[in-house]
Amino acid sequence: MSTAKEQWDTYLKTELPKITALLSPYHITLDAEQPHTKGERFLMQALTTVGGKKLILLGTKTTTNERVVIKATNDVIGTEELTHERACRTLLHSMRFSYESFHSPKEVLFLKKSGYTIFVSEFIEQTSSFLERPLAVQFSYALRALKAQERTRATTSSHFKIIGRVFGNRTADNYLTMFDAFLHTVKTSTPSERTLSALTVARTRLQAGKAHIEQYGGFLTHTDFVPHNFRIKDDTLYLLDFSSLRFGNKHESWARFLNFMTLYNRDLEMLLLEYVTNNRAKEEQESLTLMRLFRLGEIIAYYTGTLAKSTDNLRKLNDARIVFWTEVLTAELAGSRVSDDIVETYKHTRDTLRSDDEKKRQVGLH
Amino acid sequence: MKTLIISPLFPPDTGAPAPYVKELATRLGTSTSLLIYGYLPERTQSVSITAIDKRASLLLRLYHFTVALFNAQDVDCFLVNNAPSVELPFFIFYLLKRPRFVLIESDPLLQTNTPRGWYHFVHTYLSKHAKKVVTVSEANYTKAELLPFTEFDTAKESVRETWWKQHCNELTA
Prior knowledge:
With 366 residues, chain A is of the alpha+beta class.
């Protein structure tokens, strides 16, 4: 067992009873089984957002028998993240220049007590996960949600004043600086020649396309727009994670979603790419490609950062992840798609190396 | 006839009248130029664009927009898309230069909310002095998207195409 994993287990053992006691006066109980504390959860730390230490727990409000989701932390950065997320939710629902509102699960409780910050919201029951739905339905929901983000753009000085305080705004220069940090993370480990070369070429492409990145800036974008961050109920898509909302290039969320679908649903990836080709300006297509390169650099840096904290099969898996995402990046740089063979081989490796706990955590997640 | 389209929004901005203005400029072609509020607008083949950055303070951007109107050369007709930020500079320009213009009511908000205060005065004044006032709605000009799992409605597209031809004729007549 790795040190990081041991630390996480100790953290859980200490924190869960304290959180249980804090929630008790509000008639909220925690489930005995907590899927979001298992598997590789201990490794997760967002790379481009605040990313503090927090627990995501499931429970029940006993007075109403309502299922709830609990986010709890006593970590300084985690507290900032939860407070920030709440501020994002509030501001997003009140911005005048937002043409479309997002649905969010109802807030049940926001508590700051004994050094803890706890946010409790309703649990959105869904009949099936996103990826279990028919392809046409997945396409429709994905496009609607991506378009909804595009309907909110900050353009005037007063808009930027409003969003700057809460969401922040990423410019083309910010993206380039962040990519340099990804490159630095990778360089400080012992990257393969192929990974380093792909990232270096990607950096050059981003620099050359800086104007296109800036051109589609100022938009509301969800930096972690993937199926486990939204749920669907009664034909309504609920956004779960508001802390990943930023203003920046509008294709950040598209890129994250498409890169995710390279692995999880290639047909959906192709349909969305076809949609962009058929309906959007050439400059927009270029901006999307650039943001996919950016996000691929990010994921390679993320897994490089996990290597020191992982051992045995998890270490082998994270090495395989770096190799796989390097292949995706290389294909994207060549203007093609990574082959099905590479995707399937990687999936096989991943499923062989994943721990049982992680396999359990993944069930119905996407 | 040389036209200058002036607009508060242009892609990548979203929302009306941004897509309308882009398509109008594309259809009118080389005889047209654009004066818009925006930063790094999408390119439109053979149409020159002057963009006034909205990130400047309100007074500064109104000033720059007004100056850009006065700097416009050899324009036979101005196609003015309604919005306070466009109509106020154009009102000043009109009082001094008396140009020929068409007022295009392309902002859907105007169709649901009656202008108030100074904007009511400016809009009414420009409406009275325009060569014509044309109202357009998103239902008329919006191009249907090509979507998987959905058959492209060619009949609807044909109606839209006819509308655009008539509309361009109406604006340039």
